[in-house]
Amino acid sequence: MGKVIISCAITGSAHTPSMSDALPITPEQIAEQSIAAARAGAAIIHLHARLPEDGRPTPDPDVYGRFLPVIKQATDAVVNITTGGSATMTVPERLAAAVRFRPEMCSLNMGTINFALFPAAAKIAAWKHGWERDYLLGSDDFVFRNTFRDIATILETLADAGTRFEHECYDVGHLYNLAHFLDRGLIEPGFFVQMIFGILGGIGADPDNLIFMKQTADRLFGRDTYQWSVLAAGRHQMPFAIQAALLGGHVRVGLEDSLFIDRGRLAASNAEQVEKVVRILAEMGHEPATPADARAMLGLKGGDRVDF
């Protein structure tokens, strides 16, 4: 009955503004929702940036610079900057903000996948911005590139920054990729695995798949050498959080992963999802890990050693 690290992924790059009015777009909205999520119980805040004028995903460090210091000043949460960015970005673009700001954590995708969003376009009756429809429909041809060279480049580029990673595994093969980098010495024991379910192009959101992913990770890494967490897309978000907690894992919620709070009802904010998972965990006898707990469990360098 231990402490569970709650990560909250605030905005991402997959959902578009027309899908939900609650999706934070501007730096001010991203900062506000991040602070509220941290106060609700999230120990880690996972961040992407968007162009404030139309919500398009952007890798621009200057945009990140408008909300990162605000979040740091208002909370003690661990800030986790994406190196995934978007399937439409190059690796140097995806790395730009992390290189400038040297955060405690970054996400790191552990393999190349198809990353498809196009079925969502049929559900949108009116578009807020011209780019959204083509972005969603064009995802039937997206390849989210994360080659062995790309992964090594990201690991090596941030090695001197003391940044640790949320290793995002969208399929079983990604766990084997992670084991490869562990064998090469580019990743050290104590790493953090985020198992991802329900993305079209990755492993499906079936409960048996979660069990299989966890068993595979234990076999590859050993039970005591890593921390692990689960996120599931859309309606699978909360059921998979419950299953992860039952198995001794950590959880991730947030509007990047699901726009809903209940069946057919859009979430009003990221904090609403954090509050819900906190209540669920409490009923199971767990409590949210504090940022200090998360830093200790994940071996992080501390919020005083970042460049924002």
Automatic annotation (TrEMBL):
Q: Which cofactor does it need?
A: Zn(2+)
- Does the keyword section mention Zinc? yes
Name the domain of life this protein comes from: Bacteria
**One Pfam family of this protein, by short name?**
BKACE
Sorted keywords for this record are: Metal-binding, Transferase, Zinc
Has the keyword Membrane been applied to this entry?
Answer: no
InterPro entries (alphabetical): Aldolase_TIM (IPR013785), BKACE (IPR008567)
Gene3D superfamilies documented for this protein: Aldolase class I
What name goes with this protein?
A: 3-keto-5-aminohexanoate cleavage protein
